[in-house]
Amino acid sequence: MNGHSHPAPPALAAQALVVENGKVAPIDPHAVASYDGEGFVWLHADGMGELDAMALPGYVPQMAANALVAHETRPRCDEIDDAVLINLRGTAKEASHGSDGLVSIRVWVEERRVTSVSRYPLAALAKVEALMQAGKITDGGDFVSLLAQAISKELDPQVADLGDSLDDCEGMLDGDIYALRRMIARIRSQAIVLRRFVAPDRDALAAMAQLEFDWISKDDRLHLREAADRFARMAEELEAVRERAALLHEQLTDLRAEMIDQRSLAIAVTAFIFLPLTFVTGLLGMNVEGIPGAKEPWAFWGVVAFCVVIGAGVMGWFAWKQWLDD
Q1: What's the pTM?
Q2: What is the DSSP pairing of strand 102-109 with strand 23-26?
Q3: pLDDT digit string, tens, across residues 33-72
Q4: DSSP H stretches of helix in the chain
């Protein structure tokens, strides 16, 4: 705790809950700083917009306040005095926020008080609030462990969907390879972006599970490790998706090259067939005296028959060489 005090502005869109004597009740967000009961208080500022560090309650140290309102964050866990600053990334409540669908939640955790901040609504917070209403959260350790589990469970299906989508792509290799390449590139891009935050989520939770605070109980540590393991599995699955997508992209590149080779071969075969015929017709089409059969009525059909024989001979030669099988 530090001694400075900053009044929270009225524009602060926040809500607070207090758990006391087994009952959960809302509390004025501005009263959280002065609360001295034996219960547990959760203050959350959602959709904070241009909120700055000065708008946070005075009990939050300046360094932690700056981290809570930073525009760009990544998952982290830092021990500061008798409290913990932990940032996590989870699924957004509304998928329109960002191409990766993830939003950050920044949490200042004390034994009897938690202050959380997010720029956009986090899908897992509704579950955490329900657990608090059910009396499952009585201290900071409970809050973070259950928040971590809720975030990991919300994110797990999104990661699994990427793997399922890639499975579908593998079954569509004989379809439109150009549309398939765009789909695979999108899946690979999503996997790379998700892994960028899933792996640090795992590290942050593993670090918190190692902290020596009495208010982080044995069950809390088990829940934190369980969530960290789930994030580790998701990171491995995302890495597998990325590698599989790269292999599929190489397969599509090979298929495209094979298609081009087949078309080039077909063009070459056709050109080779007509090359001698073009020579014959060009030779006989010269406007000079002495063209054989120029006065004979059968000459045209004779030339046609000769060209057919030449074309059939060239086709037979290609068939004997097995070029047509390709």
Answers
A1: 0.73
A2: unpaired
A3: 888 888 899 999 876 555 555 567 788 888 888 888 887 7
A4: 62-68, 125-133, 140-170, 177-209, 218-284, 299-320
